[in-house]
Design brief:
- With about 450 residues, the chain is α/β, with parallel strands linked by helices.
- The protein folds into two domains: about 5-70, no CATH class; about 80-335, Aldolase class I (TIM Barrel, Alpha-Beta Barrel).
- About 40% of the residues lie in helices and about 15% in strands.
- It has 17 helices and 17 strands.
- The model has no long low-confidence stretch (mean pLDDT about 95).
- It binds iron/sulfur cluster (2 copies).
- One iron/sulfur cluster binds near residues 398, 403, 430 and 439.
């Protein structure tokens, strides 16, 4: 039977060859097998192995390759799902890395008005996606509590007719939390997510609060929410937390992971710091090199492996996502590891004044390169098809030379916002970006540990 050799890319890891296709199937080959593939000197056994993963194509598997390619890019067909609303830029904290470039408490001109909130919800409901998540961000969103409630109630009312699956979530520092707010959020199915940078001395060092220890408030409210969910038999919900790593955090890998495990948060994202917002000014004091970060990340994931061996249920989020992207055809909905990325087509961010940005990170830059319109002036179609949306989306396709020769291309993504911040252009020299250096080594670790070693065991 005749076959064609599919387009493939390869990464040599120790003595193995990790071979991938555009549609995301992979195979792990020995040196001998890889040479045979290169030379098109393929024996029956190898042929069977390569046909099984569509590295060779014939009439028996071509339809499967097409189906997998379509499934992997399924996110292109639905419209924007995640809508981040910045209901105020005011904040009562002074975090060393603040991406949101928060404004002073006194200046209420940085609060979203109900009129803009209404227009924002009307705009969001124009998205053709049936699954809509509205995420409240700030500043500290609870400082504009009335507008948060207004949006929840107006969106629910609008949804009586639209009948979409609408989820709400709020990202808060818990500093102005109280029982009344907690009850409202639980009663109205608004999930909560906070920031927790690790043990008290580290958290309070990174996240400065003039009103005392923010760590104490965060721990108190995570526990209170989880207790209340249990009391009300809401089994599918937990208070969540995300982590920001500064230079100081790098000597705390165990303590950070232990802190999360203690609170029952089992998906720990040891994510690197972005050079955006206030972090840009503070960069020399709080940042680290890609090499320093990777040394920390490896210690963290090795520690998580030790815990897993002791039956502690905990994952590092990037390991989980990369493993899922390689081993299944299903998109885990992580907008940064997509090509094109989530900008505009996966998420939109609405500034307090109604300005619409490609994504949350984009609104932290002062340039209007990622500004797509305003809810008072533009409709969804105009916004999604404007020049800035198309340019950002096009720049996020990992099709330039470096990515096009990388075995991780079908699972990876590039970020025009970070590229612009790092190199002054949305189209960057990818191999020189920290993000590529980090993703490459993370993929290497995941493939070796979860695919090559697993296979040998
Ligand atoms: S960004 Fe780097 S790791 Fe990702 S596909 Fe491109 S070259 Fe590969
Ligand atoms: S531009 Fe960057 S930050 Fe924005 S969605 Fe894309 S990958 Fe994420």
């Amino acid at each position: 039977m005749t076959y064609t050799i599919n387009n493939y890319r390869v990464r040599k890891l120790d003595d193995k060859y990790f071979v991938t296709t555009d549609h995301g199937s992979y195979s792990i080959l020995s040196e001998n097998e890889f040479k045979k593939l290169q030379q098109n000197n393929i024996d029956a056994k190898l042929k069977e192995k390569l046909l099984e993963r569509e590295i060779l194509l014939d009439k028996t598997n071509i339809d499967e390759a097409v189906r997998l390619l379509r499934n992997r890019n399924n996110f292109l067909f639905f419209g924007t799902s995640l809508h981040i609303i910045v209901i105020t830029l005011r904040c009562n904290m002074n975090c060393v890395y603040c991406h949101a470039t928060a404004k002073s408490m006194a200046d209420k001109s940085f609060d979203m008005t109900k009129e803009t909130a209404k227009k924002t919800v009307d705009f969001i409901f124009q998205s053709p996606n049936n699954n809509i998540t509205i995420e409240f961000q700030g500043g500290e969103p609870f400082l504009n509590w009335d507008v948060l409630k207004y949006i929840v109630e107006y969106a629910n009312k609008k949804n009586e007719k639209a009948k979409k699956n609408v989820l709400f979530t709020v990202v808060t520092n818990f500093s102005v939390m109280n029982e009344q707010k907690m009850n409202y959020l639980i009663n109205n199915n608004v999930s909560v997510c906070t920031s927790l940078d690790g043990p008290k001395e580290l958290h309070d060092h990174n996240r400065k609060y003039s009103g005392g220890s923010n760590y104490d408030a965060v721990i108190k409210w995570i526990k209170k929410f989880n207790k209340e969910y249990e009391k009300r038999n809401i089994s599918n919900r937990r208070a969540n937390a995300i982590l920001t790593l500064t230079k100081k955090s790098l000597s705390y890998h165990k303590e950070i992971i232990d802190e999360y495990v203690k609170l029952g948060i089992f998906d720990v994202h040891l994510r690197f710091l972005n050079n955006l917002g206030l972090a840009k000014k503070a960069w020399p004091a709080i940042s680290y090199t890609a090499k320093e970060y990777l040394a920390f990340w490896k210690k963290g994931v090795e520690y998580i492996k030790e815990l897993q061996k002791k039956d502690v249920f905990v994952n590092e989020r990037m390991v989980r996502l990369m493993t899922q992207k390689i081993s299944t055809e299903f998109e885990p909905n992580y907008l940064e590891l997509r090509s094109p990325c989530g900008a505009a087509i996966g998420q939109l961010a609405y500034q307090y004044n109604g300005d619409i940005y490609t994504c949350d990170e984009a609104r932290t830059l002062t340039e209007d390169l990622f500004l797509l319109g305003n809810v008072h002036e533009n409709n969804y179609k105009e916004v999604l098809t404007c020049d800035n949306a198309c340019a950002t989306s096009a720049a996020s396709i990992n099709d330039q030379y470096t990515c096009n020769s990388c075995a991780y291309k079908p699972y990876c993504g590039v970020c025009p916002v970070c590229n612009y911040s790092e190199q002054g252009s949305i189209i960057a020299k990818i191999s020189e970006t920290d993000r590529c250096k980090i993703y490459m080594k993370q993929f290497d670790w995941v493939v070796k540990e979860n695919f090559i070693k697993e296979k040998l065991q």
